[in-house]
Amino acid sequence: MMLKDQVAVITGGARGIGKEIALRFAREGARLALYDLNQAQLEPTVAELRTLGVEAEGFPANVTDPAQVDDAVQKTLDKWGRIDILINNAGITKDGLLLRMDVAAWDAVMAVNLRGTFLCTKAVSRLMLKQKAGRIVNIASIIGLVGNAGQANYAASKAGIIGLTKSVAKELASRGVTCNAIAPGFMQTEMTAVLPEEVKQAMLRQIPLGAFGTPADVAEAALFLVSAASRYITGQVLVVDGGMVM
Q1: Which end of the chain is more exposed for a tag (fewer CB within 10 A), N or C?
Q2: What tens digit of pLDDT does each residue of 43-63 get?
């Protein structure tokens, strides 16, 4: 019960990597506040977490809207009185080659991925500074480290998250708050499941360990970075990619 009674906020927590992190934290006794736009998936995820014997609440929120972020944070405080952990996981893609990418696609990805991370971090860091303790983990991507054709907006947003992580780490360290990032590689997701077999094999050839990662791999990394075991680690990017970009 590594996180017993700690309050963890997870954005984009209704499904995918966010949900997997929530389930992993629940098994360690955390109290969970999930912020997500997708209310249809938010409610069953919260119900599933409660079956594990932990307190969990879902707060519909658009992380690009400062008023909605502040409202969700206030509701979390009204419920539990503190926030110990923030996982900035909410993110989207709108892929396209640079010459064909319209401004709306650029702005949408930057708004959710980077602006959302900024807004949630700003709102929660105030509380953590008062507590003189806290853990912030931002979900970046290897695409933010190496780029990818057809994903200029996504790569820029994730690279921005890495820069934001390092700056926040320097600003908050003196008050006992750490801020780190995780950069996942190719994961077994709904997206990769529908890819043609030849495409999957081409992707696998780029991974020294010869397998896709899973959301559980990211969740284990997140657990480490919010646990007492990582107390002397801040401003770092933990790459979870099977060795792909080493």
Answers
A1: C
A2: 999 999 999 999 999 999 999
